[in-house]
Amino acid sequence: MNYLLKNFSVKLGCKLKISSFIIDMIFMYFSIFEFNSNPRIVFMLFFEILINRCPYMPGMGLTKKDCVFEVVKNGSCENIVSSPLVGFHSAILFNKKIQDAANNGKLMAELQIKAASFYDLYILFNFMDLTLEPEALGAKVFWDGGVPSVGTTLPYENAEETLENGLSSFLDFPRIKANLDAVNLMHENLEDVLIAAYVSGPLTLLSQTFGVTKVLKKVKRDPEHIVKLMEMASRIVQLYIDALMDSSAELIMILEPVGALLSPRMFDSTVKKFLMNLAAHINKRGILSALHICGDTNHLLNSMLDTGVHILSIDKQVDIAEPLKRNEKIISLGNVGTVELQTDTAENVYKISMETLQKTQGIRHILSSGCDVPAHSKPENIKMIVKAARDWAQKR
Known about the structure:
TIM Barrel, 7-stranded parallel sheet, globular
């Protein structure tokens, strides 16, 4: 209820500012008329100023990027921010090989920019790829079926040496460079869209590099050593975060899906403090921070909120409004199911999207997919998320 009341005050403030703005524009119109009596010239000049100065007129002065910041700062925007997490899907959409795009920053950027236009996205990421950091550390990645997966992990016994060596060579790995190039190119070519990037969280990085089963066993049996390794992994993650921010990323989303397999106690005693440190590091630079953990994270919701990120990316198993009830500052991102995007009808995806908005009323909420959009998702289904956001904004 608190966030609904807050939205009323936000919208009232916007309306007052618009009213003041209209008065300013009337005076400006007559001021221009004094210098040029040609009605056509006066109108053209006035319209140009209107577009450049109006901060609250939907579709004019307020860019998509501005709208994202407005939601994070004040809880709502005149439009509903919608941004399905489109990644590998863009390669399939435009008939390119995922592997080619994942290894070529220019191609990745071109595909993502085209996808941003095709789907009218507010936020544009590089590819969500949990094999990226492990491969940079030496793990073997397979591309069977087009989507990458870690085929051969590295020996856990050599983890400390691997992570230590990784600090000096990580940013030189070709695919890391490709992602940095992609982020930079997206930023150069899309002024009105918020450019974002993914990094693996420390637990997920360790699990993907040295084996999920091995790492989870060590979390239970040797938590002190895991904490030491996560500290080393966090240094690598932070190194990558800094490089992404230097490449003009305006939002960093930390991916920690392996965290969903931990109990709240284990999560808090091992992972949480490193996520808090990474979020604080991002926030200190004035960049937006987000955390994504796949699947059912109801048991971790309080811990996730404790990390200090601006945005929680929530999968469909969690009530999208629940984080908003527990924390008055957090923004929820999600949570239309990804299976539905691949297999369901467009009509049902639209219905689910509208039901999701009904839960939040579009307040402190970015309508999106619950996780990365599957590569072979139906384009018409993805478009239904965006359509629902537009329709909701028009009716409220």
